[in-house]
Amino acid sequence: MTGQLSEMRLLMIGAMYENGGNTTQRFLDGHPEMFVYPFESQLGTRFVQDALTSVCPVKYRWPVFALDATPREDYFAIIDEECKVRARTPHVSKFRDAQFDFSDDDRRARYEARVAANGRSRSQNVDAFFRATRDAWTNYCHRGEPQVWVGYSPNAVFDAAKILTDFPHGHVLHVVRNPWSAYADTKKRPVPLSLPSYMLLWTLNQYFARLYEAQFPGRVHIVRIEDVMADPTAILGSVCRSIGVETGRSLEQPSWNGVPLSQVYPWGTIRVPTTEVNRATAFELSSDEQTAVRQAAGPYLDALNYGDYL
Known about the structure:
By secondary structure, the protein is of the alpha/beta class. It has 13 helices and seven strands.
């Protein structure tokens, strides 16, 4: 694959499931200098194979492309399930009530044209995918040229080194939530992860976040969703300043395409992002579950100031 590294200022949000990644993405949605991907940006492909493949779905991983593929084959390799389902079969999408004027075929054509013009490489493929998404989204509220492009994928921090290498001007924003509330919410899924499986992924997320925060100083940012809920303008405003964009009132509440949301669902399991609801959720666990979560989280509780949360 040929092509130069992308000059795009990408901000990739990552979080363990039910840790507030979708919520943070919605708080950033209304920022006039940002293009925020409409759903989870599931950029992974079936070609992802490494030691983490067994614990994390490949749709959430940084993409791998076949060396001999065409731009069209690259496009179809990107899983992007949420957006493609909403575009092609909206009646079965959980986002069917969201106003979204978008053609996946139009995006594909725009993607192919960009790759043909700029060259084919992983960074240029991802760059083209984000830009083509914006251009094909005809009722998108911000029509000016974005300064920052925002994606979100669970567990994105696993691939932070690859993301930041592919995007020299990029940043990774890792969001963490106290594991009691997070596990209590994941139990509400139709087929939830077991407590040991969930906590393995939760601790892996914190390990990679702290590892890459040290390796890429100033480019990996860790925020607690509890702090975002308490004061989104201050916490996310600090992140905005660090990546070179202004803060503003748009950070005060979650939104979809600039329209305020009364609840974040169906973008995430956190319906109402408030301190009170978040804390009450933690107490939905039994005392035995609370103890098991504490034991599994180990030293990360104190490191993230959750030691006395319960």
